[in-house]
Amino acid sequence: MAVTAAQVKELRERTGAGMMDCKKALQEANGDMEKAIEILRKKGIAKAAKKADRVASEGTIAVEIDADGKCASIVEVNSETDFVAKNENFQGLVERIKGQIAAKQVESVEELYRSEIDGVLFEEYMKAQIAKIGENIVVRRLDRICVDGPGIVSGYLHMGGKIGVIVAAACDREETCDSIKDLLKDIAMHIAAMNPRYLDESSIPQEVIEKEKEIARAQLEKEGKPANIIEKIIPGKIKKFVEENTLLGQKFVKDDKKSVQQVLQEAAKAAGGEVKIIGFVRYELGEGIEKKQEDFAAEVAAQMK
Questions:
Q1: Whole-prediction pTM
Q2: What is the CATH number of the domain that holds 66?
Q3: Domain extent for 112
Q4: What does the alpha-carbon distance between residue 126 and residue 147 come to, in Å, rounded to a whole number?
Q5: Which of 251, 257, 273, 256 is nearest to 180 (CA)?
Q6: What span, in angstroms and rounded, lies between the C-alpha atoms of 191 and 134?
Q7: Rounded Cα distance, 104 and 58, in Å
Q8: Do residue 14 and residue 67 come from a single domain?
Q9: DSSP type of residue 198
Q10: In terms of CB atoms within 10 Å, which of 23, 168, 245, 281 comes out highest?
Q11: 52 pLDDT band (50/70/90 cuts)?
């Protein structure tokens, strides 16, 4: 049957598919809009599958604070190119993704992909979006931090989503939390800048401490220090390692005369209460991903085969 330009326009707006694809789908569906969408989705899924082996190492990090201010989410969404990462469709997809994480309270990528969105599995929704945008897009990782009782969460994005941080604090009462809201944001910025590996000394695995002792001992032996002196120096070396690698031990970026812990305690005392950082997550875009290196001419030639 003949299809109208208005039908093609509506289908294109609803699916983001090309005009000719929309026209063919409507003809195949005898003008049934929902059936035409299903046909395009099936074609989109096939199209998306072909893109799945491409390395997605660009993209963005997004942060979402729940409406009640008690949970924060962070997610890394990867695309193949920085160009697509700046595309409105990609940015809109990221907004849906982080909204879905918060709404469904998922705590893993696997949970996210099994959740339901717009009446379909999120996995199917993503395949359709990949077909629409035209690049492989991957939700690489996500984390959520929540507080029970009096507490507060905060988040920070740096360099337009190249680095993201979420952080949570527990308080003795909500009024104390309110008083440190701006400070917690500054601490999130500190985490982005200083990249602490651990929260505090107790969160450092014992094997890490032992390895640092081993390294320090080897360095001191190389300097010719006697064994009895080495054993006296090592505790100081470990103390310095803890200060440099834990959030609470690091010098605060906005006041390097004090540690983050000192600044936090002073703020809590001024508010007449108590505050404790209970956790943080820091993502850096593409960390750990091995980018695929290909000659551009060879890639074009491969596409033409």
A1: 0.77
A2: 3.30.479.20
A3: 52-146
A4: 30
A5: 273
A6: 35
A7: 26
A8: no
A9: B
A10: 168
A11: low
